[in-house]
Design brief:
This protein is mostly helical and about 325 residues long. Helices cover about 70% and strands about 5% of the residues. The protein has a two-stranded antiparallel ribbon with strand order 1-2. The protein is globular.
Length: about 325
């Protein structure tokens, strides 16, 4: 498709509309703030330094990202249909499938940006967590307070700057605040690389546990899959029913393997296994315990699984939207 294809224009508009939703910005800022404050209030390491900060960050990423994905995807298309703007766009030479897929692509871009911020915050939070550190006075348990306070300040700084830009230049607050918080996270992530855990300037090194990255990518894949489900449901349902159905499918996916028992031995059981996504594939933070790693081959297989399931759900959603009265 050419760069000026309507798909790209609709995708960018959908992404801007999503980040301008107050609930998306609120969930993003809250996720970053809670991830930042977690390592500074922990009183026990539970057998491994940084474990609680790491798992708390990934859990917050999953929880707040899930809410953002469902609310953004579930309300975007429904709002367009009820407001009549979908009918106006479809009256142009824009197909329904293009319109539906562009809406999802815009939401997916926002979810990826949301996840990027959450992953950066989790990496920094794990670095902040208390651990044994070599200092001029000898080894002692320390929290990286410099990184912790800088990380905690990012959402407040981004919101404050967005407020100033909105007041002085009339730039929309929601979208600018989202991007400024993400930019502040990137700046803090790079800047802290020039300082060690004691706060002294040293050789540039990010000093983060990169094992968190594949776990964050798996969570992101799960969120994009949920967004596809929400977008497909929203072709027929409102925001509240979409949120309810996605919540039920999420809970069912966590229990699906337990409910069906051992691996399928017949075609119909194999179909049942594939009908509901197994969310356990996306949450493997326990594999990082004790210095473990998540193989990139496993990440690739799960991302392919998520892409396949997302594609199937989007096909059903596009078929449903073709027969929706707008």
């Amino acid at each position: 498709m050419r760069p000026n294809h309507p798909f790209f224009a609709l995708t960018s508009l959908a992404a801007v509309e999503a980040i301008r939703q107050p609930i998306v910005l609120l969930l993003f800022a809250t996720c970053i703030a809670l991830t930042a404050i977690t390592p500074m209030v922990l009183l026990h390491a539970f057998g491994e330094y940084g474990k609680m900060a790491r798992e708390s960050g990934l859990a917050l990423h999953f929880l707040f990202g899930l809410l953002a994905a469902v609310l953004a995807a579930g309300s975007s298309l429904a709002r367009e249909v009820h407001a009549g703007t979908a009918a106006a766009v479809l009256s142009k030479p824009v197909g329904r499938t293009t319109f539906f897929l562009a809406k999802f692509a815009g939401i997916a871009l926002v979810i990826v940006a949301f996840s990027l911020g959450a992953i950066l915050a989790t990496l920094l939070s794990e670095r902040v967590a208390e651990r044994l550190t070599d200092t001029p006075g000898g080894s002692q348990f320390m929290i990286d307070w410099r990184t912790g306070w800088w990380l905690l300040a990012t959402p407040f700084l981004g919101l404050a700057m967005a407020g100033v830009l909105n007041y002085t230049r009339r730039i929309p607050f929601g979208s600018s605040a989202f991007l400024l918080v993400l930019t502040a996270l990137l700046l803090v992530f790079v800047t802290t690389g020039f300082y060690d855990r004691t706060g002294l300037r040293g050789v540039f090194d990010f000093r983060v546990d990169w094992r968190v990255l594949p776990a964050g990518i798996l969570v992101t894949a799960a969120l994009v899959t949920v967004a596809a489900m929400a977008a497909s449901f929203s072709t027929r349902l409102g925001t509240a029913p979409t949120l309810t159905l996605c919540g039920l499918l999420f809970i069912l996916g966590l229990l699906w393997e337990y409910l069906l028992g051992p691996a399928p031995a017949s075609p119909w059981r194999a179909w049942l296994y594939s009908a509901v996504p197994n969310w356990q594939h996306f949450w493997v933070s326990d594999a990082l315990t004790g210095g473990g790693i998540i193989p990139w081959a496993y990440v690739g297989h799960v991302v392919l699984y998520a892409a396949t399931y997302t594609g199937a759900v989007l096909c059903l959603g596009a078929l449903s939207f073709k027969h929706t009265d707008v």
